[in-house]
Amino acid sequence: MTVLRADPEPAIEPVTAALATNPPPILEATGLAKRFGQTEALRGVDVAVPRGEILAVMGPSGSGKSTLLHCLAGILTPDAGDVRLDGERIDDLDEAARSRLRRTVFGFVFQFGQLVPELPAVENAALPLLLNGHSRWSAIEAAREWLDRLGLAGLEDRRPGELSGGQAQRVAIARALVIGPQIVFADEPTGSLDSLAGEGVMNHLTDAARSEGVAVVLVTHEPRVAAYADREIVVRDGRISGADGLAGR
What percent of the chain has pLDDT over 90? Predict the structure, then answer.
């Protein structure tokens, strides 16, 4: 009787195996420098963020961590170095192009939410889609879905002044995620909240980001907030301290 033997499984090519272990970064900065007058806010910073990673950027006040976030997000233009999104430079784009990135690819959650006080929660969450030209109906429906996912069903018509701090930050998270971003930048998202509300916001932010495969760059000075991240780097005096900032390298 002839025994048929299955061909052996092909070996994984070394390059393919390396990419599976260390995926290429979705966002990468090299040699970032930024000066404000005589103050060097960033001094040759290198950082890479893989797709879907939650990266905590820690450091004391004035260390340069928010400046780093603003350069990565295209809000500030570095004086030296470059920032690449999926391998393409974005730091040398004009302001109109960087503004489009901030409306369509990047989501933002700031310390005080920066919601429009006159608008109800659902319109605040829908605002990026409305600004991008989506129909009002589709934008509002998408915003309602995100508010529901974030535990805010029934609060859609409340204005920011009628919400608790934690609820308002969840509206800000919905606004950040409603566009289907590739990266969310969160600058001290729990800084104005008590510890309980802060934990709720971080649970919602990280759970939603992981479910959508969204990378998060999280600026914080609180270790309990950084603990929600996959990895952390520390910025001191405009440099990365205690970690090289380059994932998988």
Answer: 77
